[in-house]
TrEMBL record:
Homooctamer. This is Delta-aminolevulinic acid dehydratase. It catalyses: 2 5-aminolevulinate = porphobilinogen + 2 H2O + H(+). It comes from Bradyrhizobium algeriense. Its EC number is 4.2.1.24. Keywords: Heme biosynthesis, Lyase, Porphyrin biosynthesis. The keyword Transmembrane does not apply. The keyword Transmembrane does not apply. Pathway: Porphyrin-containing compound metabolism; protoporphyrin-IX biosynthesis; coproporphyrinogen-III from 5-aminolevulinate: step 1/4. Signal peptide: none annotated. InterPro entries: ALAD, ALAD_AS, Aldolase_TIM. GO terms for molecular function: porphobilinogen synthase activity. Belongs to the ALAD family.
Amino acid sequence: MAIKFGRPIEMRDAPRRPTALASTPLDLAIRPRRNRKAEWARRLVRENVLTTNDLIWPMFVVDGNNMRTPITSMPGVDRLTVDQAVRDAERAMKLDIPCIALFPYTEPSLRDENGSEALNPNNLVCQSVRAIKKEFPELGVLCDVALDPFTSHGHDGLIEDGKILNDETVAVLVRQALVQAEAGCDIIAPSDMMDGRVGAIREALDEAGFLDVQIMSYAAKYASAFYGPFRDAIGSAKTLTGDKRTYQMDSANSDEALREVELDITEGADMVMVKPGMPYLDIVRRVKDTFSMPTFVYQVSGEYAMIAAAANNGWIDGDRAMMESLLGFKRAGADGILTYFALKAAEKIKANS
Ligand SMILES: NCc1[nH]cc(CCC(=O)O)c1CC(=O)O
Ligand SMILES: [Mg+2]
């Protein structure tokens, strides 16, 4: 059944005002309101639908045992120890969420200039992938490729004299992707915005025999204020020096997003992503219309936090704002959405079907 809203105001048993009765009807042949007159009629003409198949659920993993630690700036989202991530993977499975995404909170002692923990085949992400794929081989697992959870400076790449090095970083990202593929990751998702990394990763994956490992590139990723709570979650907010504007895109640009997406497709991306989501719906639409590729959108941490905080204050209806924002991505042309609301939204979809 469709989502129920309150009883339509037209149906309340109030007497009609005599003035309303007295007015002459407008001579209108076309009355768009007819198609909205009842829930069944609205369902009949509905153009877009959100299903659980549209959802990718991002999770944060942390070292330890049997613990869930709340992230203050993301109310309702916890850092999970690996065993708890496996439990949430099971919840995703049961709700028909096709895929989860894993992000690590790396112990500060393991972070260094070069993000070398990213290459440890036994790092938190790899441990989580193995544990989850062992119990739930049918669940898709996506891993982010970038160095920021592992570097002491919080940047996605290697730094020299205050500059982010492109080609040297790509060489490390290739090794990070291989380590994740070896752990059993299904989708490699480079989020670093270095030039040429998709092609380099594709070539290395193929050479190593990982022909079926997909690449979802964060192709049009903007330098955004909306990543704040994510940086709290992975513990890079306090250490990040400067900003990421020499590699992430300028939010003023739209044509540039098409050029970035085109390059990643040419280099071998199977799926492309736009990020953040709500302030960039126009980019989602242009990318989908231009390339007809599987197009994803990331409803990022700050978008989640805004809705969650307003809802917790009683300022908006949180569930309705959540569903409306997710449907908006579908309407803009997205084939799927990475969202911290995935579990809640899937529960709601199931309850209403
Ligand atoms: N490269 C790391 C990365 N991967 C996903 C996000 C943001 C996700 C979110 O805000 O929910 C970021 C943060 C950043 O680029 O600083
Ligand atoms: Mg690029």
